[in-house]
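Practice problem 4.
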């Protein structure tokens, strides 16, 4: 189909499993502290606070994976970002994500 011809399996995989990899990398970084400690929170915030988040949702929708996408977004709290409940970050979240998560802007 046209969708499959324009969305690679690698892109679909990335849209589906991006947060799993971020959480795993953060857990690994937390388990082996060093001077080069990496905090993935800002990168996740940058993704979610940009138009790229809408593209991610569109791809997941085209493949019937919106529940997976919603689950991943709700798991963002595991990175202690608390995007939806923290007023500082809530201002940057696009309305489409707030609607998708069933929340309202603070």
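Answer key:
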């Amino acid at each position: 189909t046209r969708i499959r011809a324009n969305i690679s399996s690698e892109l679909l995989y990335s849209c589906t499993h991006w947060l799993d990899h971020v959480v795993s990398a953060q857990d690994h970084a937390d388990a082996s502290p060093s001077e080069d400690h990496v905090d993935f929170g800002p990168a996740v915030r940058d993704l979610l606070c940009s138009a790229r988040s809408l593209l991610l949702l569109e791809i997941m929708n085209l493949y019937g994976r919106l529940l997976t996408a919603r689950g991943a977004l709700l798991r963002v709290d595991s990175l202690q970002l608390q995007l939806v409940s923290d007023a500082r970050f809530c201002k940057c979240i696009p309305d489409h994500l707030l609607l998708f998560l069933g929340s309202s802007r603070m």
